[in-house]
Design a protein that fits this description.
The complex is a heterodimer.
Chain A (H helix, E strand, L loop, with lengths): L4 H6 L2 H7 L5 H8 L9 H17 L2 H12 L5 H8 L6 H24 L11 H7 L18 H30 L7 E5 L11 E6 L3 E6 L4 H26 L2 H27 L5 E2 L3 E7 L2 H9 L7 E6 L1 E5 L6 H16 L8 E4 L4 E6 L11 H15 L4 E6 L7 H17 L3 E5 L5 H5 L2 E7 L13 H11 L1 E6 L9 H7 L4 H13 L9
Parallel strand pairs in A: 4-8, 7-11, 7-12, 9-10, 10-11
Antiparallel strand pairs in A: 1-3, 2-3, 5-6, 5-8, 12-13
Helix pairs in contact in A: 3-11, 4-11, 5-7, 5-11, 6-10, 6-11, 7-8, 9-10, 18-19
Chain B lengths: L8 H14 L5 E4 L18 E3 L4 E5 L9 E10 L2 E8 L3 E3 L7 H14 L4 E4 L14 E7 L6 H15 L13 E3 L6 H10 L4 E4 L9 H10 L1 E4 L4 E8 L1 E2 L2 E2 L2 H12 L3 E3 L4 E3 L11
Parallel strand pairs in B: 1-3, 1-7, 8-12, 9-10, 10-11, 12-15
Antiparallel strand pairs in B: 2-6, 3-5, 4-5, 13-14, 15-16
Classes of the chains: A alpha/beta, B alpha/beta.
């Protein structure tokens, strides 16, 4: 399913992608390789969602978070094994990282078991890789231990002996030289001030550099034996690293498979966490129809929760083209967004946040209307809507969902209404799934579309509130508003606009005057106040 | 840390390691360096390499780990230009170049990790522009100074005294704080100093740590006399070392060590010639 930037933002697709983002690089690679589900993908989409829903019920939420945290800590082995496979020498830090990778897989598998995960879904454990490195691992570190190379113990022993012999000679020479020079030689090179000693240096010293005030001296030792021992260790260690690297390359396929499994697990855990947070169902997949009960537009629900406000789930049944009317602040736009959001969920293999649902796998979701443009814009609001309407018509098919939010509200109402009716007729003719929220009267009947309505504020009388108490007004509206979407009868298009304006603090005289005008009907001249 | 390039910083560092080795103390070492751009590269000289005995803990970027003899890798951490920081133990004595993490916070993390991995002290081959990472802690700082920072004993001693005075800026003391307290965000530069002298005489002026003082010489002394200069996180400077040898210049070693001790009020040592100046006992006390 695709959606342009505006539609993606309006239906919460961007939010959803962030909400189910993987925690690690494996997950990102995995996700990037998987296209969103579209028409024809019903079987794999259903299988993925069903797995998520089952595991969301089975695994404790804290255990899922622990697993995700363990996934986050898994180091990336691929650059190392790819270099090894190409024949590049590996360093001990690389073996250390591979060891960490094996450890991290172990931790993950243990947490999976602790969470009660099924054996078939268990994250991989690379025993052979761990065994390859075991000789160099004492705890969590790595050392190229003697066991990795046949000549390593002897070569290192020889180097240690050469170093010790050199140290003994250095100590003895330092003592002798110190007695002669009156300074204590320390380190490889040392300074002999001429005002301390200006005679000929002892034979075991040579001058590295000198000035009129001092000489920098160093011991002259026969180092051939030490250098030969060092070279032998270097050869033995490089041989051991090459052999170990070639054995790691032998595990290439297993490591690649493990990283893929980790990627899939990352994706799965993100979806499980989402379902645990927002609820989720296994939908029935349909074409040309969209229905859900207790659907949650999670981006809005999250925003409301942050502000300590309650979100009311909604239900909707949409077949073909429908018109949605109802009061201001009744959730018409949210209803459109919820429909798009739940379709986005299934396209990403995410359990739709609803008690139950019948949803299509779509090719495209389009959003027409609303305030799409930034304040500094080339197109007026009206022009922007028309362009979006044009594009929606061009793309409309039985595999598209067109969400229309108060189309043409910024032009003359009669022409605007006519345009909306014509647009809906055209969408219907193309077999598209479309839902249009509007305050225009009689659109559904004229366009031959189903008419749905937000139940709204039937007969509600609000207690007098402080006009400046916006939070209180919102609470009162929220408590009184019936957000259910119901089938509308002809002419039931009340917007409750005047009652809401009064509650929100518009001057009472202005509201009273508006009521008088409204009672007399549009187009007639009201009595002067 | 050194007051100038070739002030004997690494010589001091090596002397401390030698003393520790003679006493059987296993140390951990790292460096506050500019990753991939060591200051030594300014004159084309190679960065000094140091010999590390078996058992030494070391933190260095992966790119500086010698391939032979192999080190025991214990842990890895934050990123540097030369690869991740690696914590390792020397198994067979080796000679290597030490680098360090690029930021003060990463240096604090590195030091904390080295302390957790070992039992002994952590020696940091420092740089004056990165020493802020040690501010506010109990870490001891040795200032290396020498002929590289002046053409005469008096000049070297004066430069050392100025540096030490700035770095020993006292911490805040609520009991003696003046009525007006001015907090300087970032560096206190010449412009700030002018403003403070003109409008804040007598006030307590607070910077975050002593390295934020960017004024030198007489202006710094005047400022210190006019305002009560303090810092949030003081440094603990315990001693100076002196190097009488500079490029094309050699100063009298004994006179230098005594002059630096007198000018800074700290014990001073010439670790090459074994000379000392000042009261060595003072090294144990923490500045107010």
């Amino acid at each position: 399913m695709t959606a342009d930037a505006y539609a993606a933002q309006r239906i919460g697709l961007d939010w959803l992608r962030a909400a189910v983002a993987p925690v690690g690089a494996f997950g990102w690679r995995h996700d990037e390789a998987i296209a969103p589900y579209g028409p024809g993908d019903e079987e794999p989409a259903r299988a993925e969602i069903a797995t998520c829903v089952a595991l969301a019920k089975r695994l404790p939420a804290e255990a899922v978070e622990r697993l995700r945290s363990a996934l986050r800590a898994v180091p990336e082995p691929m650059p190392i094994v790819v270099r090894a496979r190409a024949g590049d020498p590996l360093a001990d830090v690389d073996f250390y990282e591979l060891g960490r990778f094996g450890d991290a897989l172990d931790v993950l598998a243990r947490r999976w078991d602790e969470a009660g995960g099924s054996p078939e879904g268990r994250p991989p454990v690379l025993e052979r890789l761990r065994n390859l490195l075991a000789a160099g691992r004492d705890g969590t570190g790595f050392y190229l231990a003697d066991a990795f190379g046949a000549d390593l113990p002897a070569a290192r022993g020889a180097l240690r002996a050469a170093d010790e012999q050199l140290d003994r000679r250095r100590l003895a020479a330092a003592e002798r030289v110190g007695n002669i020079l009156g300074v204590e030689p320390s380190g490889e090179e040392f300074v002999v001030m001429r005002d301390v000693f200006d005679g000929a240096l002892p034979p075991e010293l040579h001058v590295v550099r000198e000035t009129p005030a001092y000489r920098v001296a160093a011991f002259t030792f026969e180092r051939d034996e030490r250098e030969r021992a060092f070279a032998r260790v270097a050869t033995a260690e490089e041989t051991a690293r090459r052999e170990l690297a070639s054995r790691v390359v032998g595990e290439y396929d297993a490591i690649v498979a493990a990283t893929r499994a980790l990627g899939a697990l990352d994706r799965l855990l993100a979806r499980i966490a989402f379902a645990q947070r927002w609820g989720g169902c296994v939908p029935a997949f349909t074409a040309g129809r969209l229905a859900f009960r207790d659907g949650v537009f999670a981006p809005l629900a999250a925003l409301l929760a942050e502000r300590g406000r309650r979100y009311t789930p909604i239900g909707l049944e949409l077949t073909g083209v429908a018109v949605l009317t109802g009061p201001n602040m009744g959730g018409k736009s949210a209803a459109l967004a919820t429909a798009g959001f739940l379709c986005a969920c299934v396209s990403l293999g995410v359990p739709p946040a609803a008690r139950d649902a019948e949803l299509p796998l779509l090719e495209r979701v389009m959003w027409v209307g609303g305030d799409a443009s930034p304040p500094a814009r080339l197109l007026s609001s009206y022009a922007d809507e028309i362009v979006r309407g044009r594009d929606a018509l061009a793309a409309a098919s039985p595999r598209t969902l067109v969400l229309i939010d108060e189309f043409a509200r910024t032009t003359g109402p009669r022409e605007g209404r006519a345009l909306l009716i014509a647009l809906l007729e055209a969408l219907r003719a193309r077999g598209a799934l479309a839902l249009a929220a509007t305050h225009f009267d009689g659109v559904a009947e004229t366009a031959g579309a189903a008419h749905l309505r937000i139940a709204g504020l039937p007969g509600t009388t609000f207690a007098t509130l402080d006009a400046r108490d916006l939070e209180g007004a919102l609470d009162a509206i929220n408590a009184a508003m019936d957000y259910r979407i119901v089938e509308a009868s002809a002419g039931s298009g009340a917007s409750d606009a005047l009652a809401l304006a009064e509650l929100l603090g518009l001057d009472a005289e202005v509201v009273a005057r508006a009521r008088a005008v409204h009672r007399r009907g549009a187009g007639s001249t009201p009595e002067p106040p | 840390m050194g007051t100038a390039k070739n002030a004997g910083k690494t010589t001091t560092f090596n002397a401390l390691r030698n003393v520790a080795a003679r006493r059987g103390i296993v140390v951990a070492v790292t460096s506050i360096g500019r990753d991939g751009e060591p200051s030594d590269a300014l004159d084309g000289e190679p960065k000094p390499r140091i010999r590390l005995p078996a058992g030494t803990l070391v933190a260095l970027p992966a790119g500086l780990i010698p391939r032979t003899p192999a080190l025991a890798i214990l842990d890895s951490g934050g990123a540097t230009a030369l690869g991740p920081m690696v914590f390792a133990r020397i198994v067979l004595a080796t000679t290597c170049e030490i680098g360090g993490p690029p930021t003060a916070s990463a240096m604090r993390t590195t030091i904390a990790r080295l302390l957790a991995l070992g039992d002994g002290p952590v020696l940091v081959d420092g740089a004056i522009d990165r020493v802020a990472s040690l501010a506010g802690g109990d870490d001891a700082i040795v200032v290396a100074t020498g002929a590289a920072s002046g053409a005469s004993v008096a000049a070297v001693a004066a430069a050392a005294a100025g540096t030490v005075a700035r770095l020993r800026l006292p911490g805040r003391d609520p009991s003696s704080e003046r009525e007006r307290v001015v907090t300087i965000e970032g560096a206190l530069d010449v412009r700030d100093a002018q403003e403070l002298l003109a409008h804040a005489a007598g006030a307590t002026v607070v910077v975050s740590d002593p390295t934020r003082i960017a004024v030198r010489g007489a202006l710094f002394e005047t400022l210190r006399a006019v305002v009560d200069l303090r810092c949030e996180r003081p440094l603990r400077i315990v001693a100076c070392t002196t190097s009488p040898v500079g490029r094309g210049i050699t100063l009298p070693a004994r006179a230098l060590v005594q002059a630096v001790a007198a000018a800074t009020g700290l014990p001073a040592f010439d670790v090459v010639s074994g000379l000392a100046g000042g009261t060595v006992r003072a090294a144990a006390s923490r500045p107010a």
